[in-house]
Each structure stands twice: as structure tokens, then as C-alpha cells.
Amino acid sequence: MMVLHRVRYVIFILFIFSGLGAAIYSPFQLSVHAQQPTGSIPTVTGTPAGMIIAVNLDIDTVSVYSGPSSYLYPAVGVLLKGQEAPAYGISEDQNWIQIYYPGVSDSVAWIYGPYVTIVRNGRLPEVESPPSPTPASTPTIDPTLAAAFIAPVTPTRLPTFTPPAPLVIATFLDDKSTANRLPMGLLIFGLGFMGAFGTLISFLRGR
Question: Rounded to two decimals, what is the model's pTM?
Fold first, then answer.
């Protein structure tokens, strides 16, 4: 009677342990799905990693532009002395560096290369320049206002060319009518000699 009671006790204990084991390792366990959160999940954005540029210490501020030119593109901000910024690439003429600049379109700006120093050594890839912005207005010249500063030109007739009279070259012919005449100089000399001779005779008679 005592042996039968112990056998029942052992069978009861085994039954309890087998039930617990079946409950733990049963392949028909119910899968519990956690509730998925509703709404938008915030995205975390970081700064790009790579080459770093720093503004030279001998410059207080440097302007950054929306493109690789201070004439074709507008200024979008500044960097201070010693300030660092990640670099994306370099312009085709190797003078401007494209940097990460938050707060502007696509967080991209350009800075003049000689004003900065590359902190992390490496070679920047060459990037294409963005299209230059279209000017808000195209200057036009008022033809009425421009005409006020242009002196009117009065049309005149072209001068007519009148040919000169034909050139006449004078020719001297020998005067044959005076070939037998007394030379005028000899006549004057003779008259003067006669006058002097008469004066001499009058002077001698007066003495």
C-alpha cells in the first residue's frame, strides 16, 4: 500500500514537470506582435564627412556665394576667421571650392579658394558650376532719351570738283625790231658824260 502511494506521487510529479515543459517548448505558442507606432518618424541628418576647409587666420570674414563667381552669383552668407566647413569639390578653373553651408538652397555654397586652407589633406573632385541666375530685369535704352543726346547731322551736298583752267606757259620771242636800236644804257651814259663835260667847261670859264 505504501509502495503504490509512492508510485502515484512520482507519476504526479512527472506529470506536472511534463506539462510545464510542454507549455514552455510547445511549437504552437502564440506569437505576440507589438503595436507599431503611428505618425511620421523623424529623420536625423548630419553633416557630410570628408575634406575640411578652414578660413585663413589673417582674414576676418569671407563671403560665400551661390556659385563659383562673385560677379555672376549672389552672396548667400559669410564664414568667420578660422571657421571650418566640409568641402564637396572644386570648380573647373580650380579657384572656387564647393562647401556645405546650411540654411541655403541644397545646403551648398561656394568660397574663394585662396581665402581658405584645406585642413584634411586630399584631392577635391571637380564639380560642375550651377547655372547663373537670371537677372530680375534687363536694362533697356529709351530711344527718345538717347536721341536727346545725339546731335542731329544736317545733310549737305558734296562739293563739286571744278577743273582748273589749262596752264599757259609763257614763251619769249626775240624782238627783231629792236636789234638795230641804241642800247638804253649807252644812251644814258653818253648824256651823263656830256653833262659832266659841260659842267667842267663852265667851271673853267668862270675862273
Answer: 0.44
